[in-house]
Amino acid sequence: MAIHLALLLTLLEILALGSVLLLWAKQVAGARLLVVFLLGVATWIVGNELPNWAGLGSVPAAMALLSSLTFTSAAFFHFCVIFCGAPLHRHWVRAGYAMAMLVALLSLVRSPGDFVHFPPFTGFQWVVVPNAVGWVHSLAWGILATAGLLVLGWGWLHAPSPLRRKQFASIAISCAWGLLAISGFAFAALGIEHYPWPVLTMPVFPLLLVYGVLRYRVFVVNVWARRALASAIFIVLGLAVVSLTVLLPVESKWLNAAAVATACFILSGPVWRFASRLVYPGGTPSAGDLRQWRSAMGQAESMAALEAVAATLLSTRMGTPLQMQVQADGAPPATTDHSQPGLLCHKGPQGDWQTHLLGFEEAPPGQRHLAALFGDALADAAAQVELAELAQQRERERQLQARLAELGSLAATVAHDVRNPLNIIAMAVAMAPAETRQEVGEQIARISHLTSDLLDYAKPWQIAPVATDLHARIQAQVRHRPEVELGAALQEPRMATIDPARFDQALGNLLSNACTAAGERRVLVDTELLPDAVLVHVCDDGPGIPADLRERLFEPFASRSPGGTGLGLAIAARIMAAHGGAASVTERAPWRTCFTLRFPRIAPTDSSASGLLAP
Question: What is the pLDDT of residue 494?
Answer without folding.
Answer: 87
